[in-house]
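Predict structure. Chain length: 286.
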Amino acid sequence: MAGVSVGVVLAAAASGGAAHAQGIAKPAPEAAPQAVPGFWDPRRRPERPDLSRLTVIRFLTETDYPPFNFTGPDGNPAGFNVDLARQLCEEIKVTCTIQMRRFETLLDAIASNRGDAIIASLAVTPQLRARVDFTDPYYRAPARFVSRRDAVMPEIRPEYLEGKKVGAIAGSSHEAYLKAMFTDAELHSYPNDDALRLALRRGEVDFIFGDGISLAFWINGTDSAECCAFSGGPFVESRYFGEGIGIAVRKGNDLLRQALNWALFRVWEKGRYTDLWLRYFSVSPF
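Prediction complete.
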């Protein structure tokens, strides 16, 4: 699979349908370039498998992880993952069901044949690969720097942060990355996201470094009070930030895995993935 390429799409990004924990995302006031991640190489088109052997796909997702998974106003599953699953079903032209379960029960449910595929922002790790097979990643959770709006830097390199105060969550992969790569920065560790973000708002640190997706919603939500913005671009080193987010299937279910890979590529190729991304991410984490 090709590495992450970040395309820029000129579009007005509508807010996601869910109220995020950090506040309701505000719609962009005007059309602006939005960075949309691309995880597929147009030169490496997946072969179309024999889809006639698929009669139904039982998707499993988790109950409460907006905007990726949540219960809609009508009581049905909703969110980015849910909408993507429905698009994949349309592409494959197969009947699908989507069942919501507690996150910690998903792997056992698929192992006991209570579902066929997990689409729940499941990070691909060597440990999980021992239990399930994964499709190609359909998004990644990049790391990002955030600064106050009056101190935004278009590019960040280690030498640029010499002597700067940088905050991260204690014990996180983001803290480990800073310790390894930004050795001349003054590292400040915090116990949780709330403490980290408050430190930036108060000016106790110059930058914070963390998960780009949650930070994107915080930046665009009410809790940030419009204090802050991304500085520099995304960091996606797999050693620290994972291989990406994939759809999990039972070990050895190559037909379903290949069908989903083919459908993911088709949805991306037709521009429907971009449309879906912009619908849910008014501030792109990329």
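Summary: Residues 46 and 262 are 5 Å apart (CA to CA).
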